[in-house]
Amino acid sequence: MVVLYADDYHLHVPKFEYYDGRKTTHAEQPDRIAEILKGCKILGLKIEEINKPISKRFIEKTHSVHYIQYIKNKCLEIRNEDQLMPSAFIKDTYTPLTRHTYEAALKSANLAHHGAKLLKNGSEQVVYALCRPPGHHAENNAMAGYCYINNAAIAAQELSQSGRVAIIDIDYHHGNGTQQLFYERDDVFYVSLHASPESAFPHSTGFKDEIGIGKGEGFNKNVPLSPEISTENYLTALRSAIESVNEFAPDYVVLSLGFDTYANDPIGGLGIELESFVDVGAVIKNLPRPLLIVQEGGYQVSKLSELATNFLTGLNS
Ligand code: SP5
Ligand code: ZN
Asked: Nearest bound ligand to CA 14?
């Protein structure tokens, strides 16, 4: 197993978001990755720093050229420490641009893409890409939910050129972007466990009846959960999602991993306590390999190191 990170995650520092009519501090902060990396170091995992942006040609299979150009141009307009709420290609009020957002997003996406290549050439069986900014809310033509470029989708797209790909998403929030990007495909299966959109962001997607369309019908699976779910029932739902992955018989698996299911996460929280993340990891261990783990959310910064070590301890048990 190798952990990939890009030190330039520091470059993207969103200042505030608008939530419930109020300007509030932004939850998606650089320290998140510093803490997760700390956890990986405590475990003595092999760590590789790659501070390179992804090539345009790999992004353009996932996002429209106009969208990418728009982000690039807007970032160039921003001075110093300012931030800008884009007026186009955006779905909410949580996803501001700063001067270096574009650069950080390209480097984040490169980690997932590089991870995919390591799996394809057989040099690793498990790769953990410490992506930041996260990706699973970013659609073909829109940023949302702290996400600009869909890291997991770009990796899945790369992997799908050499086989069938299953994406399993266990972030607290539904991955509307990843769902959208593969909704009409039968060679990439998307399954997501998340807090019910009735009470959680992104609200408009993540319902059970979204099963894919055209030849993609049956290859999208949403498992909306009550925020009050017991951890035992959560693990049961996770086992059954893994069963559906196994039924699909993928050549590669991508895990969108969010630690915002942690009970005390400031914006999420599915009641999962710190120590239970060992069990989450131990269930995830049953996924087939090769496996690419892509970091998504998780906002209780002071606990991220322990959340990561617990999860990885279960995974490697
Ligand atoms: C990748 C990911 O987990 N994105 C989640 C985006 C959810 N944002 C919607 C909720 C915004 C709540 N903001 C609270 C402000 C705290 N200062
Ligand atoms: Zn999330």
From this structure: 1
Given the CA of residue 260, which atom of ligand 1 is nearest to it? 3
pLDDT band of 81, cuts 50, 70, 90:
confident
Confidence of residue 80 (pLDDT cuts 50, 70, 90): confident
pLDDT, mean of residues 246-253 = 98
The answer to whether residues 202 and 144 touch, using CB atoms and an 8 Å cutoff, is yes
Query: Quick one: which of 270, 268, 273 has its CA closest to 306?
Result: 273
How far is 43 from 232, CA to CA, in rounded Å? 26
Closest CA to 267 of 94, 101, 112, 138: 94
Cβ of 94 closer than 6 Å to ligand 1, yes or no, is: yes
Most ligand 1 atoms within 8 A of CB, residue of 94, 172, 179 to mutate: 94
Query: Structure tokens of 289?
Result: 């390999």
pTM here is: 0.98
How many residues comprise the chain?
317
Q: Ligand 1 pocket, 216 CB below 6 A?
A: no
Structure-token pair, residue 26: 């932004």
Query: What are 144-190's pLDDT values in tens digits?
Result: 999 999 999 999 999 999 999 999 999 999 999 999 999 999 999 99
In angstroms, the CA 317 to CA 296 distance is 23
Q: Is the peptide bond before 14 cis (omega within 30 degrees of 0)?
A: no
* Residue 201 beta carbon below 6 angstroms from any ligand 1 atom: yes
Q: How far apart are alpha carbons 64 and 181 in whole angstroms?
A: 11
Mutate to test the pocket of ligand 1, among 9, 146, 179 (most ligand atoms within 8 A of CB): 146
> Which residues are catalytically annotated?
137
User: Tell me: the pLDDT tens digits for 265-291?
Assistant: 999 999 999 999 999 999 999 999 999
